[in-house]
Amino acid sequence: MRVGFGRTWKELKRKVTFILVYQGAAKPKRMSISLLVLCIMVVSWTSVTLWAGYLVSRHIDYIRVKADNRVMQFRMLFFAEQLEKTKSMFEKVQANDDKIRSLLSLNSKKSIIEENFAEQFLGEGGPTEIQSNAFLSVLYGRGNNRVDYASLIKQMNTVSEQYNHMQKSYLEIISYIKDQRSLFMAVPRGYPAKGVLTSHFGFRQNPFFGNTRDFHAAVDIANVLNTDVVATAKGKVVFSGWQSGYGNIIVVDHGYGYRTAYAHLNRRLVLVDEYVVRGQLIGKMGNTGTATGSHVHYEVHFNGKPINPISFLLSDSSGRQ
């Protein structure tokens, strides 16, 4: 083994001569170095090259990660900005929700029409702190552009809660509007027939026995025989037949405690359990039952008690008195 090592060492000590020939030079130059030195130079050069490549790759990875972090940071800032806009939008929607609820509590359409909505849409705005920091980082490469993730999550939870609240609120508003619409359609409005108002609601002199007074729970509207009689509100026919004193009579249940009755008809054109709408033809004016001439005896009941129909006669289709 010693012999082999000695032989190897002897070989490494041998000289390697390099002949350098320069163009135009008279004599070439010779350079001799030992094989050991040459091997050391080659190994050193290879090591330095590999180390340099490693450092460069590490630096490239660092730059790539830094760039990715930068992109992620801008994405988070953009997300935070959008979240801030969403939150602002929900706040405006909440304000409109409160406005709608306030308007729905009013009884007069005039109050709603005259309500000034312009103040809700006056121009205003400005960047948020998140937006300002992002803008500074873009312009100058500085600024407090770090995202507070805890705050971001808290804002997301807040927006989620606001959304759920708004969903519930709008369902309540829609339900209220539907209920109000149904109520509007259920309240009797307008005249059941064209003609002259010949008898009012209340005590009156009996048309057959002039020396007595009795209570008249309706209004009488007179016109020629077979004048159209229409329903004054949407509802369901609960009675269509003959009744002593009333003659041919139709009773319509409108819901919400309202019922209307149309008596002394010459003809009835609807049956029990039929649904009718406001303005639908339901009968023809006549003088059946106890009547002195052709007219319609029109009653309005609320919660089982007769009320004066005159205010309903004077109501137009929009519901204003």
Query: How would you sum up the global shape?
Result: rod-shaped
Strand content: 15-25%
Determine the structural class based on helices, strands and strand pairing: alpha+beta
Order of helices and strands: HEEHHHHEEEEEEEEEEEEH
Question: What is the strand tally?
Answer: 14
Kindly provide the radius of gyration, computed on alpha-carbon positions and rounded to a whole number of angstroms: 49 Å
Number of domains: 2
Helical residue percent band: 40-55%
Uncertain ranges: 107-125, 138-145, 317-321
Biggest beta-sheet profile = 10 strands, antiparallel
Mean pLDDT: 76
Alpha carbon gap, first and last residue: 125 Å
Number of helical runs?
A: 6
